[in-house]
């Protein structure tokens, strides 16, 4: 049987292929044929078949009897015929019943299989909308325990609100014979809301009358939720796009056309997405010409290197506004390594740029004058240097601003600085870049005039502008400036060199009388060489760059140490060790010598106190005091204070004054000397014999000591005249009760002569070089002596070597 059935199936399929319209009929005929041939008739069918057979047989016998007259046959034959007819009738009836029953069963089975095979929730509804049957899967979707639970349920009752209306309308349509559909939510038996896509198909009898309605509902809960989520996301995106200045895009790998661009394009570019699709270059046409090359270069780089890239550029929108935008592109790489597309984002960063510009402005502006500040100037210099175009740099420093600041007050000084800024601006060409470096320092970059005569004319114009403009509201004060000028590239290739050479030139201008200008160069550098030192003094004092060396003074015969002269040294951070001959005159000039003098006095006496504490009670210390110090009214008080601070008997301090110092202000010098003597301090005249009217001073100032200058000492050995002079000085001094120290003793022969001519004390390299105090200490006990390492054959029984090697000066 399976073989013959499958043969029939194959034939049927072939026929269907030939005539598709007959598909359903053939399929059903085949199915039903196969079903009916196997189906038993059943008890009722069997009884009806038997009755039909009996009836037919009886009717046959009766018919024969009625025809007895014309057809003569024995009765037994008539019965046999009747029985045969009855049997045939019975068989025919039985077959018919069997076929009908099979059709019915097959239809039921088919309907059930279709129902249960469906992945929809399929229901058969009667004309009142009650569920006659729901498929198994439908019951599961409706979370019912079985289809039976829903049998007879009111289908319309499951829908609520608007969905109920839609369901009712669809059902009515189906009742009217028209298939209908709708979407809606109804809850399952467990109360779970679900979304359904329902189709209602009317079931009609052979007369076309609707007898029932099939409702097939697809559970679209997941997809609806997904859709809702997507919609929500898309709405969110739309909202965001509407508010933020942002565009997302997907560009072809070669930047030729867009796959997609978000609606934000209208915000950012002022172009609708459709415009981008239609003309992919539309946005590029908005880019300002100056930014096009850089943008194109970055796009090319993204393409050729298949790498992420970013470009920031300006666009001019249709309304004429210029906006800053930033585009970032990321290549999407396929499995084979090719770039499939470039996705990215473009945002309007105008606000950010404006903020940066504002910060930049604040960071690079001098708040007082509104001019560029130092940082801005440095940046500008570097950018001009990078462009390799010559320019002039003027370093402008106001003269005596400190005095003005102190006398006028800070507010007025601020006003003055602002005013000066304005004068500079008005006096120089329009293209001059003016900056305030801080305090009273200004700098100007000039690109239009770069030769020396031209810049000279500018400097003169500026100085003229300043002197012409008396400052209103400042009691008619007027101000001058000193200007240093450097030129790029002549005086430097970067801001460091240019500024420092202009700075040096400016100091040179100050040094040569202020209210003038100087060009950078060797001459300016030389002029300010020592001027720089002057500037460094306060820091030197604060950071202990100064220190003292001591040179011992000896009794000539025994060479016993009588005292030590304090000699200042400066360890300059850049210049190294500087000798006092190089900086004391400078400090003299500037007045710093007073501060430094106080420091020397204090430290020399502190050292003497230490030696005294170690036992060297007879030791004295000599301190050099300059003319300016001596001229100050403070000197006596300073000496007094220092002596007291360190507990030094005044007679152990000898103050050395040069003849030059005495000459400068003899009146004040005399007053100070009288006061110092009254304190008990000793006075020595230093470098005796190098100044004028030397002998006068002996009478005028009545010093305790006279120090014969080393020039005499150096000649004493070979020059009899000098020897006679020295001898005479010593005699004269002794007669006046003045002791004599010979300086600069370098030779034993000199020492011998000095001994012979009764010089009281000797000092010089022969006996000791100036050295650090530690090298002079012998032992810390009462009666301790200090003494240098004497490098001469002039032996002395009382000479002692220091414990540690001395740190000595280089020869002068
Ligand atoms: P000065 O007071 O006449 O000091 C003696 C100078 O002669 C020192 O030079 C010393 O090193 C040097 N000298 C000592 N023995 C010899 C020698 O045998 N041969 C030669 N050629 N030179 C010798 P220094 O230390 O360079 O001082 C130079 C001058 O600087 C001093 O001359 C003094 O006038 C001044 N000075 C030094 N320290 C101070 C100070 O603290 N205050 C002031 N106002 N002036 C000072
Ligand atoms: Mg001296
Ligand atoms: Mg001297």
TrEMBL record:
One Pfam family of this chain: GGDEF
Q: What is this protein called?
A: Diguanylate cyclase/phosphodiesterase with PAS/PAC sensor(S)
Q: Which residues form the PAC domain?
A: 178-232, 309-361
Annotated InterPro entries: Biofilm_reg_signaling, EAL_dom, EAL_sf, GGDEF_dom, Nucleotide_cyclase, PAC, PAS, PAS-assoc_C
Q: Which organism is it from?
A: Paraburkholderia phymatum (strain DSM 17167 / CIP 108236 / LMG 21445 / STM815) (Burkholderia phymatum)
Q: Which residues form the EAL domain?
A: 530-784
Q: Which residues cross the membrane?
A: 41-63, 75-93
- GGDEF domain boundaries: 389-522
Question: Which segments constitute the PAS domain?
Answer: 232-306
Read off the lineage from the record. Bacteria, Pseudomonadati, Pseudomonadota, Betaproteobacteria, Burkholderiales
| Region span, Disordered | 776-812
**Superkingdom assignment:** Bacteria
Task: Write the record's keywords in alphabetical order, separated by commas.
Answer: Membrane, Transmembrane, Transmembrane helix
């Amino acid at each position: 049987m399976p073989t013959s059935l499958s043969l029939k199936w194959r034939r049927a399929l072939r026929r269907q292929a030939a005539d598709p319209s007959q598909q359903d009929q053939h399929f059903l005929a085949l199915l039903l044929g196969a079903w009916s041939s196997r189906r038993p008739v059943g008890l009722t069918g069997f009884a009806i078949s038997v009755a039909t057979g009996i009836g037919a047989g009886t009717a046959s016998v009766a018919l024969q009897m009625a025809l007895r007259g014309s057809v003569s046959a024995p009765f037994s034959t008539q019965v046999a015929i009747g029985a045969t007819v009855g049997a045939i009738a019975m068989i025919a009836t039985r077959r018919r019943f069997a076929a009908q029953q099979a059709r019915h069963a097959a239809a039921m089975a088919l309907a059930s299989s279709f129902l249960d095979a469906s992945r929809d929730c399929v229901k058969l509804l009667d004309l009142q909308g009650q569920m006659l049957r729901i498929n198994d899967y439908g019951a599961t979707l409706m979370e019912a325990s079985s289809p039976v639970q829903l049998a007879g349920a009111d289908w319309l009752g499951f829908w609520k609100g608007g969905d109920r209306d839609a369901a009712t309308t669809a059902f009515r349509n189906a009742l009217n014979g028209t298939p209908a559909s709708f979407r809606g939510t109804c809850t399952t038996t467990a109360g779970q809301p679900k979304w359904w896509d329902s189709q209602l198909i009317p079931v009609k009898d052979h007369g076309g009358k609707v007898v029932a309605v099939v409702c097939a509902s697809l559970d679209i809960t997941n997809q609806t939720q997904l859709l809702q989520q997507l919609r929500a996301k898309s709405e969110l995106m739309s909202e965001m796009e509407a508010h933020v200045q942002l565009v997302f895009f997907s560009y072809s790998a070669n930047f030729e056309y867009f796959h997609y661009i978000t609606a934000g394009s209208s915000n950012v570019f002022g172009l609708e997405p459709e415009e981008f699709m239609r003309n992919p270059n539309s946005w590029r046409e908005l880019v300002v010409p100056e930014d096009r090359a850089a943008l194109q270069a970055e796009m090319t780089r993204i393409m050729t290197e298949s790498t992420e890239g970013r470009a920031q550029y300006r666009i001019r929108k249709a309304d004429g506004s210029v906006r800053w935008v930033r585009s970032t592109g990321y290549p999407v790489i396929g499995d084979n390594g090719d770039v499939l597309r470039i996705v990215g984002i473009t945002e309007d960063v105008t606000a950010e740029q404006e903020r940066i510009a504002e910060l930049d402005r604040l960071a690079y502006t001098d708040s007082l004058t509104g001019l560029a500040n130092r940082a801005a100037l440095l940046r500008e210099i570097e950018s001009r240097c990078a462009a390799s175009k010559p320019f002039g740099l003027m370093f402008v420093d106001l003269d005596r601003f400190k005095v003005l600041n102190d006398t006028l007050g800070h507010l007025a000084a601020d006003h003055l600085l602002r005013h000066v800024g304005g004068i500079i601006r008005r006096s120089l060409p329009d293209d001059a870049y003016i900056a305030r470096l801080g305090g009273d320092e200004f700098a100007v970059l000039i690109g239009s005039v770069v030769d020396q005569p031209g810049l000279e004319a500018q400097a003169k114009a500026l100085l003229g502008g300043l002197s012409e403009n008396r400052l209103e509201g400042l009691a008619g004060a007027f101000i001058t400036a000193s200007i240093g000028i450097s030129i790029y590239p002549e005086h430097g290739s970067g801001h460091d060199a240019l500024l420092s050479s202009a700075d040096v030139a400016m100091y040179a201008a100050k040094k040569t009388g202020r209210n003038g200008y100087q060009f950078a160069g060797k001459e300016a550098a030389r002029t300010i060489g020592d001027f720089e030192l002057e500037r460094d003094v306060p820091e030197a004092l604060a950071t202990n760059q100064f220190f003292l060396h001591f040179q011992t003074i000896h009794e000539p015969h025994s060479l016993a140490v009588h005292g030590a002269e304090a000699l200042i040294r400066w360890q300059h951070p850049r210049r190294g060790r500087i000798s006092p001959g190089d900086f004391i005159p400078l400090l003299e000039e500037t007045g710093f010598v007073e501060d430094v003098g106080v420091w020397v006095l204090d430290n020399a006496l502190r050292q003497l106190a230490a030696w005294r504490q170690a036992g060297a009670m007879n030791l004295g210390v000599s301190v050099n005091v300059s003319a300016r110090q001596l001229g100050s009214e403070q000197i006596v008080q300073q000496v007094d204070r220092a002596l007291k601070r360190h507990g030094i008997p005044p007679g152990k301090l000898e103050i050395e004054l040069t003849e030059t110092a005495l000459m400068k202000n003899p009146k004040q010098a005399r007053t100070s000397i009288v006061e110092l003597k009254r304190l008990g301090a000793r006075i020595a005249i230093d470098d005796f014999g190098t100044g004028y009217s030397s002998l006068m001073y002996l009478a005028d100032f009545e010093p305790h000591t006279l120090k014969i200058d080393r020039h005499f000492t150096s000649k004493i050995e070979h020059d009899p005249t000098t020897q006679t002079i020295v001898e005479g000085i010593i005699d004269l001094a002794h007669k006046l009760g003045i002791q004599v120290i010979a300086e600069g003793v370098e030779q034993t022969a000199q020492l011998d002569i000095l001994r012979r001519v009764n010089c009281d004390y000797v000092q010089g390299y022969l006996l000791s070089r100036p050295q650090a105090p530690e090298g002079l200490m012998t032992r810390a006990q009462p009666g301790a002596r200090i003494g240098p390492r004497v490098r001469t054959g002039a032996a002395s029984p009382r000479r002692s070597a220091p414990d540690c090697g001395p740190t000595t000066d280089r020869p002068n």
